[in-house]
Amino acid sequence: MSNLENISSLLTENGFSHHGFTELTKPLSIDKYSEWIDKNYYGNMEYLKDHLPIKENPKQISSTLNSAIVITQKYFPNPKPHGLFQHLNIAEYAKNYDYHHWLKKELSELTQKLQELYPSEEFLCYTDSGPILERDLAYRAGLGWIGKNSCLIDKKEGSLFFIAEILTSLKFSISISPSPDHCGKCNLCVEACPTDALLGDKTMDATKCISYLTIENKKPANKKLRSQIGDLMFGCDICQTVCPWNQKIIKSELITNPTKKTTKQETTEELRQILTSSNSQLSKKIKLTPLNRAGAKGLKKNALVVAANIKAKDLASEIRPYTQHETLSELAEWALSEIENS
Ligand code: B12
Ligand code: SF4
Ligand code: SF4
Which is catalytic among the residues 128, 181, 196, 201? Predict the structure, then answer.
């Protein structure tokens, strides 16, 4: 068996059947990335700008690295659900415990097995944790195409998965034919995006993306964007949910596991919990989940926006104290006026 066949069987045995291999070369889309940075589409995610030189030349991570073993891990149906805030609109990936912990742990175990098989070689694992252009890497490994929603999509797997990789000094004889583009004339994701964040060229203006606004951006969004956020509490799946390549998967899951429709009262109760908890109570609760990225303050900011958009009149007395808040006072005033004028 060749190294490649050996590793491929190990990955499949460990549950990573959708995997691929590629050389660790300059990403195909690095010019696109650089243009994207120049246009300031990254908002306040400064690390994306800082990472440009390493992303361009991944061997800067370690000069002995030659290849990447790339895997995907589905987050829908949820493999590691935490069960918090089941009546709020939270992106599917974030309904699981934080993948930076559990997926990284699974990868580290795999890396250890590889290290035992090849003791003189180097192995480093990442998932969303290194200066690596992961969609480009996965594309080069033959794991899917880049859709107009900018996600990596596979015909069978859809796009509701994480990407992770093990960089290695091993050299493989690889001849991968990249996945053809199956978007065709479809434009559903671009049309469905509530904030017009998708640019139509397989990239986005992240400063308009609800995922950025509810997770990464610590400041309240401008008033126009606030109302476009609707009831999205954390992250956004709209441009993936409308995608025909995910629709097949979502529909079959709904048949086997029908979800109960949430009521406005249930949503209001969970928003109330967030608005009335102390930061430390809330931080403790969300610590091991992706919600921790926004933090307690970020969740409160998002709760004010959702409360205003769903016109939660019952929450006026919970919102009022925030009109005295250090950073959320203007947002709270806006939320109250939205609710009172509805
Ligand atoms: C910053 C970031 C974000 C930002 C910006 C996203 C964006 N589209 O630019 C925000 C906060 C908005 C975000 C949102 C989400 N993210 Co995010 N994010 C990242 C991160 C850390 C960097 C991505 C980046 O560099 N963006 C800048 C743009 C310009 O780069 P890009 O998205 O990689 O896009 C490239 C391709 O589109 C490519 N391209 C365009 N045309 C072509 C053609 C060819 C042939 C090729 C090869 C490439 C190519 O060029 C672009 C630049 O190189 C990556 C992890 C990583 N290290 O890569 C995760 C990552 C992209 N995110 C991920 C996820 C899951 C999400 C969300 C679904 C979470 C959610 N539900 O809210 C959403 C999806 C929104 C969307 N439609 O993209 C996954 C994507 C998995 C997948 N199947 O694609 C990643 C890979 C994390 C992971 N390890 O699993 N994210
Ligand atoms: S994640 Fe939501 S806001 Fe962001 S591009 Fe997709 S549809 Fe638009
Ligand atoms: S919705 Fe249509 S255009 Fe958008 S990524 Fe899916 S197939 Fe491509």
Answer: 128
Strand-pair partners of 198: 204
> How many angstroms separate the alpha carbon of residue 131 from the centre of ligand 1?
13
Domain boundary among 142, 168, 194: 168
252 assigned to some structural domain: no
Where is 227: in which H helix or E strand?
Answer: helix 223-228
Are 282 and 145 in a shared domain?
no
Return phi, psi of residue 23, to 5°: -75, 150
187 lines ligand 3 (CB under 6 A): yes
Q: Residues 158, 276: one domain?
A: no
| 147 CA closest ligand 3 atom index | 5
Residue in 135, 176, 198 to alter for ligand 1 test, most ligand atoms within 8 A of Cβ: 135
In one-letter notation, the amino acid at residue 3 is N
Mean per-residue pLDDT for 12-36?
Answer: 97
Q: How many CB atoms lie within 10 A of CB 201?
A: 11
Tell me the pLDDT tens digit for each residue of 231-275.
999 999 999 999 999 999 999 998 888 888 899 999 999 999 999
Helices 295-309 and 329-340 pack at an angle, to 10 degrees, of: 20
Residue 135 lies in a domain: yes
* Cβ of 217 below 6 Å from ligand 3: no
Asked about 201 being catalytic, the answer comes back as: no
State how many domains the chain has.
Answer: 2
142 part of a folded domain: yes
Share of the chain above pLDDT 70, in %: 100
- For ligand 2, whether the C-beta of 215 sits within 6 Å is no
Residue 103 CA to residue 16 CA, distance in Å, equals 11
Range of the domain at 270: 260-342
Asked if 155 and 17 sit in the same domain, the reply is yes
> Does any domain span residue 143?
yes
Lowest mean pLDDT among 1-10, 84-93, 206-215, 217-226: 1-10
**Do both 144 and 269 map to the same domain?**
no
Which protein residue has the closest C-alpha to ligand 2 atom 8? Answer: 193
Q: Is the CB of 211 under 6 A from ligand 2?
A: yes
* Strand 19-23 with 145-146, pairing: unpaired
Domain boundary among 168, 200, 226: 168
